[in-house]
């Protein structure tokens, strides 16, 4: 019972209810329902073309569902734009992060600050002291977040010097700047070397220990097994099954879905 009490330890942060998304004749997401519970790291796996990225786009608000509902902390956000969902505590990283190459790391992270007066020309003109004070606070916070993701020593370097794996860490710091309740992570392990992968796994654990919930799309099953208590499997736009990483890896339907994908590739 207490599992679903609003605000309780296992309350749903993000809910998909019978979500459908069509692209012309193709049903990329077909009647998918699930919950991401407060404090968990939930995995989302499935073969190429399963509909995982489309599901992320729907949850984040980059695209809208053809039908069905998306709830963020119990509020129906199905028709809301992405920036409004960010304001409600939903963060998202991209498979291929694209920081502004000529800005420093700290400047890139500061760009993600919410509600700065500096964004408003009038405020800048009328209350420059407040804008300066807010920028100082944002700079301190961005510095702390770069420390959290082990990039503090590069804080004043331009983002173009970063490797692919370091860009993923910068992306995590950027998302954290908006104080998210939940972060959607899109393939954080893709293209990352083994050493940096360990850093990314550690940082995700640290951020999760601060009470932040994660939904993780990942093809690297070792990472999923190490981070996720619960895993959802999608195939052909539908939710195939749910369980621990070990359970789903043994499930004949999952094996069949991956083998079918490999045969079709
Ligand atoms: N904008 C779009 N227009 C038309 N079809 C699309 C669009 N976006 C995705 N699709 C199709 O929807 C299906 C699901 O794609 P999606 O990218 O969500 O899968 P995925 O599980 O994320 O795959 P991968 O693991 O390869 O990233 C695919 O058949 C894809 O071609």
TrEMBL record:
Q: Where is the ABC transporter domain?
A: 14-261
Organism whose genome encodes this protein:
Mesorhizobium shangrilense
What is the protein's given name? ABC transporter ATP-binding protein
List the Gene3D superfamilies.
P-loop containing nucleotide triphosphate hydrolases
Extract the CDD domains matched here: ABC_Mj1267_LivG_branched (cd03219)
Q: Which family does it belong to?
A: Belongs to the ABC transporter superfamily.
Which InterPro entries does the record cross-reference, listed alphabetically? AAA+_ATPase, ABC_AA/LPS_Transport, ABC_transporter-like_ATP-bd, ABC_transporter-like_CS, BCA_ABC_TP_C, P-loop_NTPase
Q: Which UniProt keywords apply?
A: ATP-binding, Nucleotide-binding, Transport
The answer, when asked if Nucleotide-binding is one of the entry's keywords, is yes
Q: What is the lineage of its organism?
A: Bacteria, Pseudomonadati, Pseudomonadota, Alphaproteobacteria, Hyphomicrobiales
GO terms for MF: ATP binding
């Amino acid at each position: 019972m207490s599992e679903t009490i609003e605000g309780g330890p296992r309350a749903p942060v993000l809910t998909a209810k019978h979500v459908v998304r069509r692209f012309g004749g193709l049903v990329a997401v077909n009647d998918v329902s699930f919950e991401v519970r407060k404090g968990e790291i939930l995995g989302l796996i499935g073969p190429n073309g399963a509909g995982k990225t489309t599901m992320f786009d729907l949850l984040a608000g980059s695209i809208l569902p053809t039908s069905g509902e998306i709830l963020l902390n119990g509020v129906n956000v199905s028709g809301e734009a992405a920036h409004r969902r960010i304001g409600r505590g939903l963060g998202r990283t991209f498979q291929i992060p694209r920081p502004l190459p000529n800005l420093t790391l700290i400047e890139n992270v500061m760009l993600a600050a919410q509600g700065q007066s500096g964004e408003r020309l009038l405020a800048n003109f009328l209350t420059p002291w407040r804008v300066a004070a807010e920028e100082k606070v944002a700079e301190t916070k961005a510095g702390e977040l770069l420390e959290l993701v082990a990039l503090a020593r590069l804080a004043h370097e331009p983002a173009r010097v970063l490797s692919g794996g370091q860009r993923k860490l910068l992306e995590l710091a950027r998302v954290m700047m908006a104080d998210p309740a939940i972060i959607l992570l899109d393939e954080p392990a893709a293209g990352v070397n083994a050493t940096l992968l360990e850093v990314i796994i550690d940082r995700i654990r640290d951020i999760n220990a601060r009470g932040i919930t994660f939904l993780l799309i990942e093809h690297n099953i070792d990472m999923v097994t190490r981070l996720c208590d619960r895993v959802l499997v999608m195939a052909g736009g539908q939710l195939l099954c749910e369980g621990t990483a070990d359970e789903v890896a043994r499930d004949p339907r999952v094996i069949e879905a991956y083998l079918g994908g490999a045969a079709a590739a």
